[in-house]
Amino acid sequence: MSIRSQLKLRPRADQRPAAPVAAKMVARGVRVSYGAKPALKGIDLDIQENRVLALIGPSGCGKSTFLRCLNRMNDTIEGCRVEGRITLDGEDVYGRTIDPVQLRARVGMVFQKPNPFPKSIYDNVAYGPRIHGLASGRDELDEVVQTSLKRAGLWAEVRERLREPGTSLSGGQQQRLCIARAIAVSPEVILMDEPCSALDPIATAHIEELIDELRANYTIVIVTHNMQQAARVSQRTAFFHLGEMVECDDTEEIFTNPRDERTQGYITGRYG
Amino acid sequence: MTDLIERETAAVPPAPVRAAGPRSHYKGEAFARRLRARHAAERRFRRAGAAAVAVAALMLVLLIGSIAARGASAFWETRIRLEVALDPAEVASGNYTAPLRRALHAQFPQVTDRAGRRVLNDLLSSGAPYELEAMVARDPAMVGTVRTVWVRADDEIDQLAKGHYRRDLPEGERGLSDAKVAAADALAAAGALAQGFNTTLFTAGDSREPEQAGMGGAIVGSLLTLLVTMLLSVPVGIAAAVYLEEFAPKNRWTGLIEVNINNLAAVPSIIFGLLGLAVFLGFFGLPRSAPLVGGLVMALMTLPVIIIAARAALRAVPPSIRDAALAIGASPLQTVLHHVLPLALPGILTGTIIGMARALGETAPLLMIGMVAFIVDIPHGLTDSATVLPVQIYMWADSPERAFTERTSAAILVLLGFLVLLNGVAVILRRIFERRW
């Protein structure tokens, strides 16, 4: 099944023509290097509000590196240097006015491998609101946990077993738990780094539906190796290659009418 | 840009195709021989491993068995029954020796000469009058009456009763006079000699008289020393490990610190004793033989062990947990305290208890700071003079009296018991902390 037929088979909810949407995050001239090795060579990219942006490209092209720049997770990597400017609602993410802790509360992240804390399901979701003081009192916290689990589509499955360890869930449930954990702190942007690569197709379908629903309230950036997935869940797609952003456009444009030969080659499976 | 695509697809050479079927490499006689040789090698290796474990187990059984066989009798002591008449005048003047001797002499009416009576006097422990004094203090109504009391026998009689003297040897080689043997036998025949559990061994401090010597002082000294060691080295060690592993930048200086910590763990313990002598006693003027100084020295000695173990445990925590916590906006300190440290705790505990066990069994550094002294009193504080169990073992092993041989072994058993207890605690704590998730 080709990508194009995929697109036709699954019409997206949002079929309006791409009206100009406010950019939630803006990256300009972002360069990243690990020690002497350059990883990103000047990326300019707008991340639009309440849209899903998919980052695609072959392994080692810098998609994940770019994603981790957006919430400064690269700070934890020894020898990683970030240049350029990234703004969130016009505020410089690497500037003095934003603390990384505050930034990461506003820009949440879901990782490739589900990584729930080895605590109960409840505590996994409640941890973020607790440390940020988002809920005062037991009842409010219960409310936040329930809402987050409902939004992550996990409530029905775990409502009877909130005290069981999060690690006892299946892989797909764990990943939805991680999403619930991320949305429990009410972020504005959610970054997802290949969230389905460790999951089976049914769990993947679950997560994809979830991403589509979450779009109403959050801005989402998703890194994926799976081009069908990019086509299914995203409104905009950016193609990365060897540390450069080759092309960024509406997803339909990218998959049906790519401007760059490299994009064309990648999405038709000629390399990558 | 098409050349890029061409290059990546064209560069793969076709894989050499090996004919499958009866001519396969894996079905020939040569391969079967190789396979047999590989299996034989594995069997040889397994047998060698099992033999090594068996030898180690045998050695352990022999070692513990010989110590236990030698030390078991030390947990019993021999007592002599006496009909004591307590004269109020003697009690008032604090003379408890006379009533005991009168009672003993009464059991041997045929002995009248001074030499014979001295032999009889020597049957009693020199601590027996103090025992009697304690009994009177507990029960003042005893005074003026005749009571049956059991008092401690001399260590030679104790050893004779336990069969540690060879009766078939002539008097000169035996080390115990015929007269004493005869007197002890007479007491035993009259049912006036009995053995009971040796509480003195655990409650008393050291003594020159084996039957009055106990390791109570050494046990308390060990516990006080260990307390100081733990209070200092555990928080400092864990904090150092957390800082080095989670917060410190990885540069030349932290590398240097790491190398030095690893080297410190391998420094002979006596060096730490010399350091303690020079710094704590010489410079700071802390008291000699004190558990405080002993604990300080042991803390220096255990710190590298704890730091290394704690760092290893922290490194073993998957980075995905740190990512998860950081990504929802936990500060680095919250990440460590809420997630990384709890996960590393079982490993840290094990390392800590191994360090504590090493400190409990350590002798050499304590010799340098005066904890090898002969101390009769049980220490009551961190600055009282004290000794510790391994040093007590060392001192008893040096004593010439026959009765100290079994007490040495008994003290070793007690020390081993404490070590087993510590390791048991480590296992239980591991279980508890691992079950939490």
From TrEMBL, chain A:
One of its GO terms (molecular function) is ATP binding. Pfam families: ABC_tran. It comes from the Bacteria. InterPro entries: AAA+_ATPase, ABC_transporter-like_ATP-bd, ABC_transporter-like_CS, P-loop_NTPase, PstB-like. PROSITE patterns: ABC_TRANSPORTER_1, ABC_TRANSPORTER_2. Residues 25-267 form the ABC transporter domain. Keywords: ATP-binding, Nucleotide-binding, Phosphate transport, Transport. SMART domains: AAA (SM00382). The keyword Nucleotide-binding applies. NCBIfam families: 3a0107s01c2. This is Phosphate transport system ATP-binding protein. The lineage of its organism: Bacteria, Pseudomonadati, Pseudomonadota, Alphaproteobacteria, Rhodospirillales.
From TrEMBL, chain B:
Gene3D superfamilies: MetI-like. The chain crosses the membrane at residues 48-69, 218-244, 264-286, 293-316, 336-357, 364-382, 410-429. Keywords: Cell membrane, Membrane, Transmembrane, Transmembrane helix, Transport. It is found in: Cell inner membrane; Cell membrane. Coiled coil: none annotated. Its main location: membrane. Residues 219-426 form the ABC transmembrane type-1 domain. It is a multi-pass membrane protein. Belongs to the binding-protein-dependent transport system permease family. CysTW subfamily. PANTHER family: PHOSPHATE TRANSPORT SYSTEM PERMEASE PROTEIN PSTA, PHOSPHATE TRANSPORT SYSTEM PERMEASE PROTEIN PSTA-RELATED. NCBIfam families: 3a0107s02c. This is Phosphate transport system permease protein PstA. It comes from Azospirillum picis.
